[in-house]
Amino acid sequence: MEAMDQLLELFDLAPELNFGTNQGWAPGKLFLAGEYAVLAPDQPALLFAVSQYLHCQVGISPWPGRGLLQSNLPGLEDWHYERANLYEADSAQWRYVLAAMQIVEDLVEEVGRPLQDYRLSIDSQLLADNGRKYGFGSSGAVTVAVIQALLAFYGLVAKSPLMHYKLAAMAMTRLGSKGSLADLAVNAYGGWLYYVAPDRVWLQEALANHSILSLLSQDWPSLVIQPMSAPADLEVLVGWTGVPASTDNLIDQWQDRSGTAYQAFLSSAKETVQAIKSAFETGDSLAIQSRLADYRHLLLQIEKHNTLSIETPALRELVTIAQAYQFEAKSSGAGGGDCGIAVGQGHGLKKELAAAWQAAGITLVELEIGAPQRPSEEAGNYARRKLNGPS
């Protein structure tokens, strides 16, 4: 099959967007269950998108052969880049953006379309007012949002969010990501997701031996991305400890991934996540709460076995307080700080729980389940003013 025919199976051509001002949005994410286990082959996880977003806007550069990258994310200073050495430049701070840019431009070049330079602006809502991160996954969100915006800039509209996920997963794999790539699925799809990671050994080898377009066109071994619907009475609250955590550092500290304790953890984790998935499908909120508590205890066991710090004292207090108000709770993601989640049945104690958390120094983050689309025209207008300056 010719490259253009392959492209047209996966993307709609939108010449009216070509080299115009275009935008991409990606919601943040949190794990409900499955963290740590999802790093192993064929292990499932359940995640959800949060209604705080990262926005990317791309417009054509007025400077031939040069462009500008801007962001409100900490550590990302304005960068006037030169096309001639764009991907050879030593710019670790911009590595996720550059990886997203390069994967899209590799695709564009594969189908013989011209490249152009641009002004690219990133505006993130995934940070607290003091600039500290919540743990909603900025690196994945920025990768997906940049890919969305750049595809449109080059006149390509993906027919499925799977294309955004796959491109982002390829970009992250090129960077040597140690993660499950689960955040990218939520960033691309939004909502609730049941997820099993692709075979990452296969993906690394495939990237070295196949074109981008070929990898977009084929099924990926083991990959499962299944949107889910939550029971109508399920209430999910997010508490922030105010302490940032590093996922990669916690993963690096996990030494034993081969012994019987680890295999027992994987077996129990899979059974528990699949039970939560079944409870979603039957609308059984009580079962979700019960099995969420089970997954918390699995994490505590593996934490003890590996001498990790997944459930910090602040997260433990978050859980204890939530249980007093008839919620079940646990750390979310790698733990070690960041956020915890509490799950209940909408029985009217949300305000009381939030007040108790606040008294303990834990902040309720006001969120809804995030959609994959831009959150509002007002937010889009804000981002345009940021990129283009005052009107």
- Count of runs of 4 or more consecutive helical residues: 13
- The residue fraction in helices comes out at 40-55%
Ends apart, CA distance between termini: 48 Å
Gross morphology: globular
Strand content: 15-25%
Report the mean per-residue pLDDT as an integer: 88
Sheet of most strands: 7 strands, mixed
Using only C-alpha atoms, the radius of gyration works out to 21 Å
Low-confidence region ranges? 375-391
Please describe the topology of this protein.
Blueprint: H1 3-10, E1 11-13, E2 22-33, E3 44-60, E4 66-71, E5 79-82, H2 95-110, E6 118-124, H3 138-153, E7 156-158, H4 161-174, H5 182-189, E8 192-196, H6 200-209, H7 212-217, E9 224-228, E10 235-240, H8 247-253, H9 260-282, H10 285-306, H11 313-324, E11 328-331, E12 339-344, H12 350-359, E13 363-365, H13 377-388
Parallel strand pairs: 4-6
Antiparallel strand pairs: 1-7, 2-3, 3-6, 3-8, 4-5, 8-9, 10-12, 10-13, 11-12
Helix pairs in contact: 2-3, 2-4, 3-4, 3-5, 4-5, 9-10
Description:
The protein is α+β, with helices and mostly antiparallel strands and 391 residues long. It is 42% helix and 21% strand. The chain has 13 helices and 13 strands. Strands 2, 3, 4, 5, 6, 8 and 9 form a 7-stranded mixed sheet that branches. A 4-stranded antiparallel sheet has the order 11-12-10-13, sandwiched between helices. Strand 4 and strand 5 form a beta hairpin. Helix 3 packs across helix 4 (161-174), helix 3 packs across helix 5 and helix 4 runs antiparallel to helix 5. The chain starts with a helix and ends with a helix. Residues 375-391 have low confidence and may be disordered.
